[in-house]
Amino acid sequence: MSHTNIRPYKGMVPITGANNYIDNSAVLVGDITLAEDVSIWPLVAARGDVNTITIGMRTNVQDGSVLHVTRKSSHNPAGNPLIIGDDVTIGHKCMLHGCTLGNRILVGMGAIIMDGVVVEDDVFIGAGSLVPPNKRLESGFLYVGNPIKQVRPLKESESAFLKQSAINYVELKNDYLGEVN
Fold first, then answer.
1. Could you read off the pLDDT tens digit of each residue along the chain, which spans 181 residues?
2. Of the candidates 27, 57, 138, 180, which lies 20 to 30 Å from 122 by C-alpha distance?
3. Helices (DSSP H) in 46-86: which residue ranges?
4. What is the pTM of this model?
5. What Pfam families has UniProt attached to this entry (predicted)?
6. Distance between CA 177 and CA 114 in Å, rounded?
């Protein structure tokens, strides 16, 4: 058994892309694929054991977040993989479970996104929000609450920030990579 933070499970080993930063305290297990320029920050736990996790380019997963999937079953033959698009910012202590996130999304600190949820592109999810199973969040809106509710269309400045947040984290992870090299 490996004692590193990137661990195999049943022969599946996480695949990391170019220029990734994975903090030494984060743990990635099993069928996980990271695109390039992804950053995985301290104490993240990502477990691709009973389904797959895919994380797109320039996405950042911040401290203490948990990423998991739903197993395949007779009532859900495909299960629920976790699919995260490009330029996504996942705030501190979020829980993402068997959901699909598009591109240019900000998931606020402490948010929980449950099985079967689909979040379209260009969405802000407020801190502490709960997205119940199988909900669809439409592109271009701010969502908040427990359970989550659509609040209003995104302002132009908020839409621009979605991409800028990802760029900021690419620059930060590059700084961290420079420290370890």
1. 345 899 999 999 999 999 999 999 999 999 999 999 999 999 999 999 999 999 999 999 999 999 999 999 999 999 999 999 999 999 999 999 999 999 999 999 999 999 999 999 999 999 999 999 999 999 999 999 999 999 999 999 999 999 999 999 999 999 999 986 6
2. 27
3. none
4. 0.95
5. Hexapep_2
6. 32
104-119 residues labelled b (16+ CB within 10 A) or e (exposed): bbbbbbbbbbbbbbbb
In CATH, what number does 6-180 get?
2.160.10.10
Peptide bond preceding 153: is omega within 30 degrees of 0, i.e. cis?
no
3-state secondary structure of 176: helix
Give the distance, in angstroms, between the CA of residue 52 and the centroid of all CA atoms in the same chain.
13
The DSSP code for 144 is: E
Locate 75 and state its tokens: 């009532």
**Identity at 75, one-letter amino acid code:** H
CA distance 44 to 58: 17
Collapsed DSSP state (helix, strand, coil) of residue 162: helix
Which H or E element spans position 170?
A: helix 156-180
